[in-house]
Amino acid sequence: MDAYTERNYTLLCDFYELTMGNAYLESGRSGDTAYFDLFFRTVPDNGGFAIAAGLEQVIDYIKSLHFTAEDIEYLRQKQLFSEDFLSLLKDFRFTGDLYAVPEGTPIFPHEPILTVCAPVIEAQIVETFLLLSINHQSLIATKANRIVRAAKGRPVSEFGSRRAQGADGAVLGARAAYIAGCSSTACALSDRAYSVPAGGTMAHSWVQMFDSEYDAFVTYCRTYPHQATLLVDTYNVLKSGVPNAIRAFKEVLLPQGITSCAIRIDSGDITYLSRKARKMLDDAGLPFCKIVASNSLDEYIIETLIEQGAKIDAFGVGERLITSKSAPVFGGVYKLSAVKPAGSDEIIPKIKVSENTAKITNPHFKKVYRLFEKETGKAIADLLCVHDEVIDETQPLELFDPDATWKRKTVTDFIAKELLVPVFLNGECVYESPDIETIRNYCAEQIETLWDEVKRFENPHTYYVDLSQKLYDIKHDLLKKARA
Ligand SMILES: Nc1ncnc2c1ncn2[C@@H]1O[C@H](COP(=O)(O)OP(=O)(O)OP(=O)(O)O)[C@@H](O)[C@H]1O
Ligand SMILES: O=P(O)(O)OC[C@H]1O[C@H](OP(=O)(O)OP(=O)(O)O)[C@H](O)[C@@H]1O
Ligand SMILES: O=C(O)c1cccnc1
Fold it and tell me: pTM for the complete prediction?
């Protein structure tokens, strides 16, 4: 952690979390333990799955939670909070438990990706930061992965900082994009703070600064002979940009035996220009010169460019990735699922009822199992269970659709993996966030466990997130009671 990462975000909460906290204390409820689940309801862009990200920042936040004297004075001046509450805030720390799905895990609607069980004031005050961190990075990771998949193995560099929504949007967006498979970022701070490899090409301004495009290219090649990606569309791609790039490469790089070079096309019809440029480069004896494309790209344009036969080796993607332009909200929510009253050992499940059945919550302190087919390693379904249930892999397991309980299937020869891992226990951090390369590799591996039907862009297959019989019964009992 350093100056950028160790910021104190304790007051980055919604004000009602503080007023409720004060009222919990005043009404004698502050000793109750609250259980909250963080989950989302729909996959952005109508995709078949999302990718969890943002946990490392949640951990940093929880570790550094504290109200400064100035924060407390600010709250005192609101004349809403008791002195008892303000003095509780002086020593405020997170003392509870937090379980989460590791970053990079594919996730599905309605399953907890993070569960907090903590004294109610603590559990409530962390709500906003937990949501904003997981919502933002999961959104960008999900979008970036779609773009990476569309590129079919061609590297995708993240170019979006300049059009991101604020500093964290840029720096943490670049982190999420890298986890999800982007090959690099243009953002230097994301590299320094989070080890996301930074790199880049050149701006139009570089080309404009020189009397000729050729001078601009030669000067750049001389300074960076091993990293010369020349931007060829400042004046005219085919009449000047590509011929000048060929001249510069031949004069500066080839005599040194350097064959790693590229051009970047940033406007016009990318298919047409890339095909023509490819032929010109090949005819000039530069078949190794790569072609990079950029300009308001996203997964749909990349897919169509490849279908059209564009000759692109790598993509740079900015605004539509870093803002997740086509689906800018992740929609993760944080809902109370159970309460353990002070002095009691009983966990009482709670439900939130809605006319909209998709918005009815899954009650209780839960476990999430992902079931994998032993033979193929592919994910079959996720199963939400009550916290004390254990799945026996040696026995056949009957799964049913909680919305259509007659739809049943029995699975055998499966592996059941618990998705939520302990991150904090009694306020102690018990989880070490893996380094970013490990998270990125894990993400790629886990996406491989999904069937292609779940991964396609058009009408992806709905992956099953089922309830155990015990959880289903508890939920339906609570619903009946709520109706009564
Ligand atoms: N062959 C293609 N098929 C589909 N979309 C394309 C193709 N070539 C380029 N595009 C996309 O079309 C859009 C064109 O953007 P725009 O209208 O700004 O044109 P432009 O050539 O970039 O103009 P400017 O010179 O102002 O940058 C971009 O999103 C680009 O990625
Ligand atoms: O289109 P995006 O997906 O957001 O990709 C990033 C864009 O940012 C740069 O343009 P900009 O006009 O900001 O600077 P430039 O003059 O260096 O091209 C770059 O040339 C790309 O076009
Ligand atoms: O390095 C690049 O080519 C780059 C960086 C930021 C935005 N657009 C392009």
Answer: 0.97
